[in-house]
Predict the structure.
Amino acid sequence: MDQKSIDKRVGILDWGIIFSFLIMLVIIYIPLNIWAEEEKYKKDSRNRMEIISNAEEFYKEITGSYTTDGKELFFIVDAAIDSTIADSLFFGEQNIFYGDKPYKVNISKGFLNRADTTFSIGVKRKKNIIDTIYTVKMTNPELNSFDTIYVNTNDIENIKQDSLFNEIINFSETNYSENFTDYLSKKYKLTSNLLNCPLTDEPYQLQINYDDPEEVFFKVKSPVPNDYKERRFLFFSFESGDHGFIEDKRKSWSAK
């Protein structure tokens, strides 16, 4: 066999190795991407169902009943949140208009704080605190003497009003870090797109169970069937899996 034939065969072998390597990459890479996409849609869908379920509980709290009208649900709850932000006196029995229809609502004083933390994405943050620590002399009538206590800025005014307060002996500044969750920077509105499944754009199934009049509860279910599939790149398929449901505030996927 001459050198030219040998070089040709080596070239073919090299290209075969490269082609096989590319095929192997495709076989590994494409399924990984599809699995990641499946999980992304499932996570987004379940998050939307949680939002709907939470909104229903707030709706029931302020109106006394559930609703299967998603647009009405989001409008009333969002309007209640906006009204309490705009008017600090917007609590107790109030009216909210949805179109020309008035809805009687009853807003508790803690409603806004709970709604703010529910319909937002908590962001972990850290802040530096500069505080003043006071050394305070207090009368001890039982021992007919004085005690020394240490008080920070938040409490000093109350201590000074105490009948046992004697004097501030000393004070000093201190620095420390405090971790907290910020719920204000990533608040979101209850927009109508959240009522539809991100995969199929079909509306979620909203149901109210009246089997027991004493225990009426709400259920939101994904419209995607468990056997849902889409063909990808001829040889691969996207499978949605079970997106689940939330019934009476219990998530079906939490038990798995």
The mean pLDDT is 86.
